[in-house]
Amino acid sequence: MPDFFRRKPTFNREDVSAEDGPVVPDGLWVKCQKCKDLVYSKDFERWFRVCPKCDFHARLSASQRIEYVLDSGSFEEWDRGIVTSDPLEFSANGDVYREKVKSTTRKAGQPEALVTGRGRIRGYDAAVAVTEFRFLGASMGSAFGEKFARVVERAVDQRLPFISISNSGGARMHESTFSLMQMAKTTAALSRLGEHKLPHISVLTDPCYGGVTASYAMVADVIIAEPGAMVGFAGPRVIEQITRQKLPDGFQTAEFLLEHGMIDMISRRSELPGTLSLLLLHYADAFLGRHQPGYAMSGQSRNGEAR
Amino acid sequence: MSTTTPAWERVQLARKADRPHSLDYVNALINGFVELHGDRRHSDDPAMIAGIGAFNGRTVMAIGHQKGSNTRENLDRNFGMPNPDGYRKALRIFRHAEKFGFPLICFIDTPAADPGLGSEERGQATAIAENLLALASLRVPSVGVVIGEGGSGGALAISVTDRLLMLENAVYAVASPEACAAILWKDSNAAPQAAEALKLTAQDLKRFGIIDEIVPEPEPAHDASDATIQRTGEAIERHLGEIEAIADRPAGIDRLLELRYEKYRGIGAWVDEQEELIGELPVGVPGTSTPESTSD
Ligand SMILES: [Zn+2]
């Protein structure tokens, strides 16, 4: 528990209030989406946007996630300019994909649903990929797949362990088979990472479904989920419609996945940097050679400069 | 929103119950085919068939989604929608092929992976993902053919092959037109429009460079089963011959794996707008979005 006192999140209160439903106008309080209790917004921030009353883990933007998990100022972003080129010239019912991407980019503050780069976790270097759910439900299309393949390939080049932190609705429909093929592309990239004995640690956050769970997110060396995160292949509504069965309580939660042997552990948000850094310490033996004193020290990277 | 579209007519053809299915191909093309059963973990999934036999004089392993040709068969075969046990059976066959150095032939014909309670409990997403990972580095030559419906990750899980072929009236997309219509049109009656927008025909996918060859159907497969199967066998032989020639050279398998990596690494349509984007975007501006545009 002392973990969360070490670092102070620095994003401002507007970030908190705008996303979390009804808020008292002065912005001092946020209403928990789960227990509906009012929480003092400063407390909410200090607890990494976790409700101190019911432990509900609210969704984070990619930049908030990076802020929470990586050492302050250590993140160096890669390939921010990679965006979709709309291969199908897709539109649905007059809704033009190209336009939707533009408006979504403004809304989400990210040009794609995946943010990639390198950074440090308690001093340990890692390549990271973090999804942005506000960008079309963090759906995976061509640009997402390309950025993912690149970050993994650079992890190989720079001998970095790789951490993905995901929530997603699945493959992006607007790019149809191109999106589907990103599932093949991302896993193929990971198979190279594995050949080089570099670990992939996957963190599943709420909600994570479809093409993302059915590809890179579920073939990690270690899989961690946040408490209560909904994770599955088909969405609960689809399953209910097709099977006409009522789904049991707790179906597809992180706890359900742990019970069924699909993930290694559940980690509370405040404990995640500690868990990740401990794992990075252990796996360092595999790709750095044994006993590397000083590797854990911030700024002592043995991995050379970023490209 | 109910008028048909050319792509939607293709979908209807691809789904025709009397179209030849995987076992028809395997029985006609593979001599002395011995079906192998079970995932050695939990069960034998009838929606996924697998086995060993001789294809034009060489031993191969074959895998396919299996649909039924009538309602009763379809209930037995779960309409060709495998559960995780089916995908794990396929994974066992991949490894088996690799162990003995047998080429792998995959027949793709599924609306989707099974979306049921038990499938979720046993890790449907994990099963599919593990197959994608295994196929990416499988050390034998492989050819896949979409013979009917290629639906989403459930189809992809046995189609990450060195060469991917597609019958003229087959379709392959990220989701069924019905699912796409329900999500993006908010109206499942818009499936014909969704089919058109998804660009799911063999001609579209050849143009995009996602498939390697279209196997023509001068007469639709359900009217000319034998001729279609024979033509498909010839196309498989041609592609298999080419990749075997690569694999047979010194370090040829490594070269084949490189080519396979490049093939899938290269699929995607994106641009790098680095210069234009820098400085223009607000960072960390909050907003809202809904997962409306997604599927598996
Ligand atoms: Zn609460």
Structure description:
The complex is a heterodimer of chains A (307) and B (296). The radius of gyration of chain A is 19 Å and the shape is globular. Chain A has a 7-stranded mixed sheet with strand order 3-7-8-9-11-12-13, sandwiched between helices. Chain A has a two-stranded antiparallel sheet with strand order 1-2. In chain A, strands 5-6 form a two-stranded antiparallel ribbon. Chain A is built from 11 helices and 13 strands. In chain A, 35% of the residues lie in helices and 18% in strands. The N terminus and C terminus of chain A are likely disordered. Chain B has 296 residues and is of the alpha/beta class. Chain B contains 13 helices and 10 strands. In chain B, strands 1, 2, 3, 4, 5, 6, 7 and 8 form an 8-stranded mixed sheet that branches. In chain B, helix 1 crosses helix 9 and helix 8 crosses helix 9. The C terminus of chain B is likely disordered. Chains A and B meet through helix 2, strand 4, strand 5, helix 5 and helix 6 of A and helix 5, helix 6, helix 7, helix 8 and helix 9 of B. Strand 4 of chain A pairs antiparallel with strand 9 of chain B, so a sheet runs across the interface. The site of zinc ion has 8 residues of chain A, from loops.
Jot down its keywords:
heterodimer; A: alpha/beta; two-stranded antiparallel sheet; 11 helices; disordered N terminus; B: 296 residues; alpha/beta; 13 helices; disordered C terminus; binds zinc ion
Describe the structure concisely for a colleague.
The complex is a heterodimer of chains A (307) and B (296). Chain A is of the alpha/beta class and 307 residues long. Chain A has 11 helices and 13 strands.
